Amino acid sequence: MQPEDLRAEIPALDRGVYFNTGASGPAPRRVVEAAGDFLEHHEYVAPVAEGAYPAAFETFEETREVVADFLGADAAEIALTESTADGIARVAAAVDWTPGDVVVRTDLEHSAGVVPWWNLREHGVEVRVLDTDAGRLDLDALAEAVADARLLCLNSITWNYGTRLPISDIVDIAHAHDTLVLVDGVQSPGQVPVDVHEWGADFVAAAGHKWLLGPWGAGFLYVDRSVADDLTPGVAGYRSVADPAAADLSLKDGAPRLEVGTTSPAPYRGLIEAIEMIEAIGYDTVTGRIERLTDRLKAGLGDRLLSPRAYESGLVTFDADDPEALVDRLADEGVHIRSLPDPDAVRASVHVFNTAEDVDALLDAL
Question: For the sheet containing 345-349, what is the strand order?
Fold first, then answer.
């Protein structure tokens, strides 16, 4: 599949120039049809054929396998969630916290990586915020911050500057102090290759509705086997246990113990299709095209650019006198970007479906 083929599959692109994939990617027809076709089968056919629950559970199992293969993991290391925030919250609720435990997060975190730790305040957990500089992390300061910490939470690609953090190096520093590492990885899958075993993190939370161009409601959580079986879910249901009908209940082995109960399998069918489409294009094509287009955009932005001049990701942040007013004006002209809370700026997300003409349209509108 070529980028032009993907672009032709995305109806939203017929209605405007879209540069907001870092918030929510516009899904291709094939992805929506995969979810819709399975929903019809699940509701119209499965009840009197294989059964609604067997159809759903077959999809869950296949999704774990597809996601695991895509991330360089094992299926037993994948829990299906609804979103990145959902995955992070499930980890926060499953660790056996004690008063005085410390969670370190950076000042670059999305609210998905802020609220779950704030919610541990009644458990006596201290949240320590590590200051950064324009999306850059000082590794010496990091080592000092995690020296007595229970867990570190950070992005793989920062959502507000588009910088790519050296996750494997960071994990080595944290693990040297016996600190668990949770990576908010949602800005990575779909625009850069991810191998969670190379990263070495204990947890990686992500979802399919951004760079993978999948539907909302299909998230996934990687949990390393060395830590998974020590987790006790804060919320448990029949999907959390090995045999819900057993007299002596026991939690499932591995990450699936963090799954709970009945949920629609349809978004996961869409996620499978979305992953297959990205794989059909190939990461060499994806990252190469994003780099060329972001270079073009950055050159046109000049001194307004706040993201790194050299390529790190498709997220390009730049200065604006009134970010929200600019976003509204551009939307009226059919060009879609977003404002950011910190820095007080705007961000364009450049993906493989974008074109040089899209970039020029944004620059002309600015």
Answer: 315-318, 345-349, 338-340
Query: Tokens for 186?
Result: 């949602």
Q: How far, in Å, are 97, 145, 182, 250 from residue 174 at the CA level? A: 18, 9, 11, 31
195-206 tens-digit pLDDT: 999 999 999 999
Q: Are 222 and 71 in contact (CB under 8 A)?
A: yes
Give how far the C-alpha of residue 201 lies from the chain's centroid of Cα atoms, to the nearest Å: 15
Burial annotation 64-76 (CB, 10 A radius, 16+ → b, else e):
bebbbebbebbbb
Nearest-angstrom CA–CA distance, 336 and 344? 17
Give yes or no for a contact between 70 and 206, defined as CB atoms under 8 angstroms apart: no
Cα Rg for the chain, rounded, in angstroms?
21
pLDDT digits (tens, 9 = 90+) for 227-271: 999 999 999 999 999 999 999 999 999 999 999 999 999 999 999
* pTM, 2 dp: 0.96
